[in-house]
Design a protein that fits this description.
By secondary structure, the protein is an alpha+beta fold. The chain has a domain of 170 residues: Transferase(Phosphotransferase) domain 1 (Transferase(Phosphotransferase), domain 1, Orthogonal Bundle), CATH 1.10.510.10. The protein is built from 12 helices and 12 strands. Strands 1, 4, 5, 6, 7 and 8 form a 6-stranded antiparallel sheet that branches. The protein has a two-stranded antiparallel sheet with strand order 2-3. Helix 5 packs antiparallel against helix 8 and helix 5 packs antiparallel against helix 12. The radius of gyration is 20 Å and the shape is globular. The N terminus is likely disordered. Bound molecules: adenosine-5'-triphosphate and magnesium ion.
């Protein structure tokens, strides 16, 4: 979920400086949902039909009974946000027990948000899940609980901050070393190319919404990124206007979405038949271009081991709105990592800027990374 924060804590950006009441996103436009319902599944494109269907249906239930784990009389918290808590649990499938992460609302208003997130996760699973996108294991509509694969590991933010603190190598390379940075960047970029190809906008791409999962390889272990938290996302469906943005994670947010937040909270429709708000409201919703911006900010932060505007204090919002993070970093302590001829700079050039239409596409970022990885091996 998007939040108003200047910088995020190492634990969780969502809880860094939460507003007094959760602002989140405004419920989706039910007028357009009605239109979609009336149109039924008319599209010839099977994925588009699957998105329409996912939008209108309650997400599937878990395949078995689940319980929340209890240790020393308390739930086992994996994380918490403004709308939700994530706890560890156990899902019984046939005779097997699977460790799961359970995301559930901590406010009544969170129900709709989690149900919509479950629809997106369910659709992603049906369209072809990937190891680098968190696995969906069902939605308990009674408690609005999303069951997911439990990813044991830290967020990418925590991981990179630790790597910065432990850094031994050259100061001109990313804090993880160039090889690992390229690997993480390629894995993540492939995930976002995939999400775009199946019509999913994430909406809140930050290093706090990426978990680093330890996987076994032939030569030992490797940390690989997994994308989580689709609570600000939406499915691309013709005629459907998803929720507008009313809050942002400043440190990773594209300038156009930031503007949307700064211009104040959106006014929701006055009645179920009131179409005027949705049609006249000029505020943008997250797009593939804003996802690319968030992804590039995530990769830049991962390279330098801090959030980009962390030292900018109360001016962070102003710099964030200018949308030129590479210039900002070049004037700071991490300047060697983002020199104009560095791989980090050459990779991320064109991903930023105030004008969304002038940014490169995520596919081009993927191809660039492929080229750098090939020439490094
Ligand atoms: N599948 C998972 N496995 C392990 N830990 C998880 C998983 N999903 C979430 N978490 C933990 O819970 C934290 C919060 O989850 P998430 O990012 O989905 O929601 P949020 O941003 O806190 O909540 P909201 O969207 O309601 O504001 C994550 O940063 C992570 O530490
Ligand atoms: Mg989150």
């Amino acid at each position: 979920m998007l939040w108003v924060t200047t910088t995020s804590s190492t634990q969780s950006s969502a809880s860094a400086t939460p507003p007094e009441t959760p602002v989140g996103t405004i419920a989706s436009d039910w007028n357009s949902l009605n239109e979609i319902f009336n149109a039924k599944y008319t599209s010839g494109d099977p994925l588009a039909s699957a998105r329409q269907k996912a939008l209108l249906e309650i997400p599937p239930r878990p395949f078995g009974a689940y319980t929340e784990d209890v240790q020393c009389g308390s739930k086992v918290y994996l994380g918490s946000g403004a709308w939700s808590d994530v706890v560890r649990g156990t899902l019984a499938v046939d005779n097997e027990k699977v460790v799961v992460a359970i995301k559930m609302p901590c406010y009544p208003d969170g129900y709709e948000i989690l149900r919509d997130e479950a629809k997106i996760l369910s659709y992603i699973t049906s369209a072809g899940s990937r190891e680098s996108i968190v696995g969906f294991l069902g939605f308990d509509s009674l408690n609005a609980a999303i069951l997911m694969e439990c990813v044991a590991g830290t967020t990418l933010g925590q991981y990179c901050r630790r790597r910065k603190a432990e850094r031994r190598g050259t100061r001109s390379e990313p804090v993880t070393g160039l090889t690992e940075w390229l690997y993480v960047a390629k894995q993540l970029t492939d995930s976002f190319v995939h999400l775009k190809s199946i019509g999913v906008v994430h909406g809140d791409v930050t290093w706090n919404n990426i978990l680093m999962k330890e996987i076994r390889t032939e030569s030992g272990f490797r940390n690989t990124p997994v994308v989580i938290d689709f609570s600000s996302g939406h499915l691309e469906v013709q005629g459907y206007r998803p929720a507008a943005v009313s809050a942002t994670t400043t440190a990773f947010c594209s300038p156009e979405l930031l503007e949307a937040h700064i211009r104040g909270p959106i006014t929701p429709p006055q009645s179920p038949t009131d179409k005027s708000r949705a049609q006249n409201d000029p505020r943008p919703i997250p797009t593939y271009a804003s996802d690319l911006y968030g992804l590039a900010m995530t990769l830049l932060s991962a390279a330098i081991g801090t959030e980009v505007y962390e030292n900018a204090g109360r001016y962070a919002g102003i710099y964030a709105r200018q949308g030129q993070p590479l210039d900002w970093v070049r004037n700071g302590d991490a300047c060697l990592i983002v020199g104009v001829r560095s791989v980090v700079s050459k990779t991320l050039n064109g991903c930023f800027g105030r004008v969304a239409e002038k940014r490169i596409e995520v596919e081009e970022l993927r191809d660039r990374l492929g080229g750098f990885i090939e020439s490094a091996t």
